[in-house]
């Protein structure tokens, strides 16, 4: 049963209530390895579902365009204050609707149409908003991409430096969606300083690891830090942009009035709650367990012959090239989903196949760690993954695995849902 309970929703719209309940049950029964997903706490869920959704607050605390901000102002200030304290930054904007608009605000703040910026190639682990040709960032600006080494699977900082010297980009982005290795923020900062670029660290994936002390922080190195709040940080769907004093006004203006209207106050409140939770000592334990689980899973997968990009992981994320398993990423992901193991197909660096049917899959341990799985369970996860990939066409075999997965996950409670007794 969903927690908090959906009794009003069930009365008003039983169809929708049934669907939400079904999704909660699905999230409970599966091993959720999608690297960008997590389970938020009941406190975050309650803030997200609160009456704060009723309020309009265009502007910033103390400078709004609508009246009645006696309560919303302190809520947003609380979220800002907690973000500054937790990340150790001078300024935080907590209004971006999500990670993509946050990055768009960075483009708007620092560039004009046609300007050059440097970022990681999408197929090597970057993000759509870092200049993909299908994104506004690639259509209206001039992205130049660095990549990872064919042999190492790691970003080559010499290539980044050479490109920055040659192209003189306005902005350099570091960070991405499929980077299994530690990002060298000081090295990026040195290159940005030398070439006069604004350094933006997009830590959407690793924000929770950073505040938990399980990944180095870009604070003090990057001029601007963008992050989602719903991945390893374990908050509501939303985003933040953190900056030095120098860039605070440009970023605030880019978000409002540059891109957005009224902030989503219920989300702001839930971000404040998530930041409070992330400041607790048990969140440090969580972040380190996420990495320990990923390392254990990487080891168990390697032992079963899986080919990991860069040979392993330093964080929550593992990128697997399935070429040697003679299966594409998409059919593998579909088979694994039927086996109760949820993940996404993904391009791998230098992928000879197309993005819609690439060679790899991407997994992460943020969600399963929230459920309470530890290193000892990672061997079973790897074994089930191996079996499912080998039996991708065998419906009954996949169903048997899904049953075993459900049995395991039944032993771990899920925030926001409890079985009916
Ligand atoms: C997830 C992600 C984003 C986009 O976040 P959305 O909330 O999905 O718009 C941006 N950058 C990186 C690196 C991401 O991983």
Chart the SSEs and their pairings.
Layout: H1 7-12, H2 14-29, E1 31-32, H3 42-48, E2 59-60, E3 63-64, H4 72-87, E4 91-93, H5 99-110, E5 116-120, H6 136-139, E6 142-146, H7 157-167, E7 171-174, H8 185-195, E8 198-202, H9 207-211, E9 224-228, E10 239-243, H10 245-259, H11 265-278, H12 281-303, E11 307-308, E12 317-321, H13 329-338, E13 341-342, E14 344-346, E15 360-364, H14 366-371, H15 375-390, H16 395-409
Parallel strand pairs: 1-13, 5-6, 5-7, 7-8, 8-9
Antiparallel strand pairs: 2-3, 4-10, 9-10, 11-12, 12-15, 14-15
Helix pairs in contact: 3-11, 4-11, 5-10, 7-8, 12-15
Structure in words:
- The chain has 421 residues and is α/β, with parallel strands linked by helices.
- The chain has two domains: 47-278, Aspartate Aminotransferase, domain 2 (3-Layer(aba) Sandwich); 281-409, Aspartate Aminotransferase, domain 1.
- Helix content is 44%, strand content 13%.
- It has 16 helices and 15 strands.
- Strands 4-10-9-8-7-5-6 form a seven-stranded mixed sheet, with helices on both faces. Strands 11-12-15-14 form a four-stranded antiparallel sheet.
- A hairpin with an 8-residue loop joins strand 11 and strand 12.
- Helix 4 (72-87) packs parallel to helix 11 (265-278), helix 7 runs parallel beside helix 8 (185-195) and helix 12 (281-303) packs across helix 15 (375-390).
- It is globular and about 60 Å long.
- It starts with 6 loop residues before the first helix and ends in a 12-residue tail after the last helix.
- The model has no long low-confidence stretch (mean pLDDT 97).
- Pyridoxal-5'-phosphate (PLP) is lined by residues 36, 98-100, 103, 127, 129, 175-177, 202, 204-205, 228.
């Amino acid at each position: 049963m969903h927690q908090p309970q959906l009794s009003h929703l069930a009365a008003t719209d039983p169809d929708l209530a049934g669907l939400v309940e079904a999704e909660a049950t699905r999230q409970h029964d599966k091993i959720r390895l999608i690297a960008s997903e997590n389970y938020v706490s009941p406190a975050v869920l309650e803030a997200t579902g609160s009456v704060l959704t009723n309020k309009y607050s265009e502007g910033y605390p103390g400078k709004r365009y609508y009246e009645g901000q006696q309560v919303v102002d302190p809520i947003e200030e609380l979220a800002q204050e907690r973000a500054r304290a937790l990340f150790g930054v001078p300024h935080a904007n907590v209004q971006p609707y999500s990670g993509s608009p946050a990055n768009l605000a960075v483009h708007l703040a620092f560039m004009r149409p046609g300007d050059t910026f440097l970022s990681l190639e999408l197929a090597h682990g970057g993000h759509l908003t870092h200049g993909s040709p299908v994104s506004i960032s690639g259509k209206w600006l001039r992205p130049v991409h660095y990549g990872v080494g064919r042999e190492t699977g790691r970003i080559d900082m010499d290539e980044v430096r050479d490109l920055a010297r040659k192209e003189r980009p306005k902005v350099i982005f570091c960070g991405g969606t499929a980077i299994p290795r530690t990002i060298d923020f000081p090295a990026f900062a040195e290159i940005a300083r030398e070439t006069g670029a604004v350094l933006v660290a997009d830590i959407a994936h690793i924000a929770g690891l950073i505040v938990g002390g399980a990944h180095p922080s870009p604070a003090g190195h990057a001029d601007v830090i963008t992050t989602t709040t719903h991945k390893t940080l374990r908050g509501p769907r939303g985003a933040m942009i953190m900056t030095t004093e120098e860039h605070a006004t440009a970023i605030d203006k880019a978000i409002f009035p540059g891109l957005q209207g009224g902030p989503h106050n219920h989300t702001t409140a839930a971000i404040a709650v998530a930041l409070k939770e992330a400041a607790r000592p048990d969140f440090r334990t969580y972040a380190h367990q996420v990495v320990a689980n990923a390392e254990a899973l990487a080891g168990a997968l390697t032992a079963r012959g899986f080919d990991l990009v860069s040979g392993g992981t330093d964080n929550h994320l593992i990128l697997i090239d399935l070429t040697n398993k003679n299966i594409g990423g998409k059919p593998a992901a579909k088979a694994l989903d039927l086996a109760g193991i949820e993940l996404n197909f993904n391009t791998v660096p230098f992928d000879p196949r197309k993005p819609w049917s690439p060679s790899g899959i991407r997994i992460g341990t943020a969600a399963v760690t929230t459920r309470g799985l530890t290193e000892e369970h990672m061997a079973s996860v790897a074994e089930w993954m191996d079996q499912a990939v080998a039996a991708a066409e065998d419906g009954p075999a996949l169903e048997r695995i899904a049953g075993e997965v459900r049995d395991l996950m039944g032993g771990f409670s899920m925030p926001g849902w409890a079985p009916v007794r």
